[in-house]
Specification:
It is a single chain. By secondary structure, the chain is mainly α. The chain folds into two domains: about 150 residues, Orthogonal Bundle (Helicase, Ruva Protein, domain 3); about 150 residues, Cyclin A, domain 1, CATH 1.10.472.80. Helices cover about 65% and strands about 0% of the residues. The longest helix has 21 residues. One of its GO terms (molecular function) is GTPase activator activity. It comes from Oriolus oriolus (Eurasian golden oriole).
């Protein structure tokens, strides 16, 4: 009864945020992050477009079959989609699944044709199929296109350089929380490649229960683009004892970590990932992340502007906020100097910070911080969301 009452309350709060003028996107983000996420696919169909600032009244027309004739990626996409049987609900009739697979191919080719700067990668279809199953083909096309030019942008470069850069955040996060696990993994020389499929498919490829996949998508859509790597870190940290009990060699540790458990405590891990993002924002983790030259090429750096454009979804409000952002430019530069000093602090200070903050920040506080202030840790970036 208590669970049902909480669920009803949350549904009412979500619809209140949707019906406010302007739409309360910050509240929707908090709802997507907090326990249970957005609860139902019906609600996701309404909220996901708001989180991505997609106008549902102006959806692209369904693509024609000529897409397939003109696309250099068609054969690879076709092969990947044919192999994606396990991503469809068990028991779905073959003819229904085949229709969805055709739609999946068209969505991918449509996005690639409209955005020639994007390069298809194996695993991309695992993300697209999640949107297709939840919101249908036309809306999925619009959402995936926005996602591909923002959160997923790094994965769609001609090379894997930026993807590797994001994977490089994994070990520093683990080191901040559990140096013993970090040092063990370093000794085993396991690297981070075990988490590659987690990251580039937003865990869609490795989790068998669709409910868990969409719950994570609620979380990731509401947060900074680097949140999936924080979630990857908390999975490793959750398996601390298994890791330390493993043979300390690359093959053994890689095999253990690449077999992701299906019974993870998702709500607890989501809460911890949010906490870690608040305690150890990206700018504190690596010097590379703070370098403007690298940052300008990554999705993380454009997220501040992307979030700004979706906050209230009213052009005059966005323009006023942009003006205020420019006035704060000098403060941001001073903040970068502070970041450089943080990066040089010895490890003991990390534990002092952990002790002061507590190992688990209340989820509500973490969610609020992620929504309100996480973006201030991204490197300075000239606002260019509509080039």
């Amino acid at each position: 009864a208590d669970f049902d009452a909480k669920k009803k309350r949350k549904v009412a709060e979500i619809y209140q945020a949707l019906n406010s003028d302007p739409i309360d996107v910050a509240a929707l983000r908090r709802m997507a992050i907090s326990e249970g996420g957005l609860l139902t696919d019906e609600i996701r169909r309404k909220v996901w477009p708001k989180l991505l600032s997609v106008n549902t009244d102006d959806l692209p027309p369904l693509p024609g079959k000529e897409l397939r004739e003109d696309s250099k990626d068609y054969q690879q996409v076709l092969l990947d989609v044919r192999r994606s049987l396990r991503r469809f609900p068990p028991g779905m009739p073959d003819d229904q699944r085949e229709v969805l697979q055709e739609e999946l191919i068209d969505i991918i080719l449509h996005v690639l044709k409209r955005n020639p700067q994007l390069h298809y990668y194996q695993g991309y279809h695992d993300i697209v199929v999640t949107f297709l199953l939840v919101v249908g083909d036309r809306l999925a096309t619009a959402l995936v296109e926005k996602l591909s030019t923002h959160h997923l942008r790094d994965f769609m470069d001609p090379t894997m350089d930026n993807t590797k850069h994001i994977l490089n955040y994994l070990m520093p996060i683990i080191d901040q929380v559990n140096p013993e696990v970090h040092d063990f993994m370093q000794s085993a020389e396991v690297g981070t490649i075990f988490a590659l499929s987690w990251l580039i498919t937003w865990f869609g490829h490795v989790l068998s229960d669709f409910r868990h996949v969409v719950r994570l998508y609620d979380f990731f859509l509401a947060c900074h683009p680097l949140m999936p790597i924080y979630f990857a870190a908390v999975i490793v940290l959750h398996r601390e004892q298994e890791v330390l009990d493993c043979e300390c060699d690359m093959a053994s540790v890689h095999h253990l970590l690449s077999q992701i458990p299906q019974d993870l405590p998702y709500e607890s891990l989501i809460s911890k990932a949010g906490d870690l993002f608040v305690q150890f924002p990206p700018s504190e983790l690596t010097k590379e992340a703070a370098q403007a030259a690298q940052a300008e090429r990554t999705a993380a750096s454009t997220f501040k502007d992307f979030e700004l454009a979706s906050v209230q979804q009213r052009p005059d409000t966005v323009l006023r906020q942009r003006f205020r952002e420019r006035l704060r430019g000098e403060e941001r530069l001073r903040g970068e100097e502070r970041t450089k000093s943080i990066l040089t602090k010895p490890r003991t200070n990390r534990f002092v910070k952990l002790a002061v903050m507590g190992l688990t920040v209340a989820l509500g506080a973490a969610a609020l911080a992620v929504v309100k202030s996480a973006l201030e840790w991204a490197p300075k970036f000239e606002l260019q969301i509509f080039p």
